[in-house]
Amino acid sequence: MIDLKDPLVEFVREIFSQIYDIVLQYREAISTVINNYLNSVGDLTVPGNYVDNCGDVDVLNNTLIISHDIHIQIVDNRNDSIIERINLWLEELLHEFSKQEWLRYRQRIIEISHFLQFQRKRMHNDFCIKDAFAFDVAASLEG
């Protein structure tokens, strides 16, 4: 299972690497749109309520940077969450396997113990206690 987990984690990392590339492409595309908008705004009159949000280059660039940081943080959190869940799943699975194996071995030991007790009783009943050899064998089986 551990050998299967490592390729899965590597696959998840590759997928998230592609997601990071897409986020960067998105940022570049939005930056291009903002720059084109700001270059065309000089010719147009922007309503007063939009000037505060859309008329200043610094405000738009800061908004773009904050938006990018939020996207990266969301992707990072999701990446960490998925890898953590994979590791936790494997840990719980291995713990459950070891618990089941321990119970199975415990049942086997109890089964062997019952079998030996049965054989002791049978040997004790089959042999005559008066016989010294049978007495010695029965005593050695009991303890």
Low-confidence stretches: none
Strand content: under 5%
| Shape designation | rod-shaped
N to C succession of SSEs: HHHH
- The residue fraction in helices comes out at over 70%
What is the subunit arrangement here?
Answer: single chain
**Cα-to-Cα separation, first versus last residue:** 43 Å
Work out the helix count: 4
Mean pLDDT: 82
- State the major sheet: none
Count of β-strands: 0
Radius of gyration: 37 Å
The class by helix and strand makeup works out as mainly alpha
Descriptive labels:
143 residues; mainly alpha; 4 helices; 90% helix; 0% strand
Describe this structure in words.
The protein has helices at residues 2-41, 48-54, 57-126, 132-142. It is rod-shaped. The protein has 143 residues and is mostly helical.
SSE topology sketch:
Blueprint: H1 2-41, H2 48-54, H3 57-126, H4 132-142
Please outline what is shown here.
Helices cover 90% and strands 0% of the residues. By secondary structure, the protein is mainly α.
